[in-house]
Amino acid sequence: MTISRRHLAAVALLATGTPAFVLSSAHANEADAAAVAQAVAALTKAMLTPDKAQLEALTADQLSYGHSGGAIQDKADFVNVIVTKKTVYKSIELSKQTIVVAGNDAIVRHAWESESGTGDGKWNVSKIGVLQVWQKQGTSWKLLARQAFKV
């Protein structure tokens, strides 16, 4: 096989391009993980306020929102319960959060501690674990699935 200048140029290009690709891929993952963390924080804030527009903007139309007691809500139910104040959040604290980005999906895990009630002045404390799946739709990250579990 004859090695031409074109072959050498192609090898040189690949050799110098690979590290740039790896670095840009790692940088993109870090940027996506930061964007997902911001979306989680925005969703938490929207649940505390309650902000219908934000809740709808941060959740996918196909949302499956699972509670630790077994109840499962779709997007309309999830938003409605918060906006109509059937559930009122006095506080939500997230800790031990991890985020793993895999392409256009992200897996978020955290510990959840909250005070919530139905507006009658009685507050319930919840200490649970949560798994969330976020999906990048266009340029926005949206909550696709959430499952809480007892710890």
What would you say about this model in short?
This protein has helices spanning 5-48, 52-58, 75-83; strands at residues 59-66, 72-73, 88-102, 105-117, 124-137, 140-150. With 151 residues, the protein is α+β, with helices and mostly antiparallel strands.
Characterization of the model:
- With 151 residues, this protein is an alpha+beta fold.
- The protein has a single domain (5-150), classed as Nuclear Transport Factor 2, Chain: A (Roll).
- 40% of the residues lie in helices and 42% in strands.
- It contains 3 helices and 6 strands.
- It has helices spanning 5-48, 52-58, 75-83; strands at 59-66, 72-73, 88-102, 105-117, 124-137, 140-150.
- The protein has a 6-stranded mixed sheet with strand order 2-1-6-5-4-3.
- Strand 3 and strand 4 (105-117) form a beta hairpin.
- Helix 1 (5-48) packs antiparallel against helix 2 (52-58).
- The radius of gyration is 21 Å and the shape is globular.
Task: Quickly list its features.
151 residues; 3 helices; single chain; globular; Nuclear Transport Factor 2, Chain: A; alpha+beta; 6-stranded mixed β-sheet
Q: Numbering strands along the chain, what is their spatial order in the largest sheet?
A: 2-1-6-5-4-3
Q: For the terminal residues, how far apart are their CA atoms?
A: 64 Å
Number of helices: 3
**Mean residue pLDDT:** 88
The percent range for strand residues is: 35-45%
Rough outline: globular
For the record, the CATH architecture stands as Roll
**Structural class of the helices, strands and pairings?**
alpha+beta
Instruction: Specify Rg, calculated over alpha carbons.
Output: 21 Å
Largest sheet: 6 strands, mixed
Helix content class: 25-40%
Structurally, the number of domains stands at 1
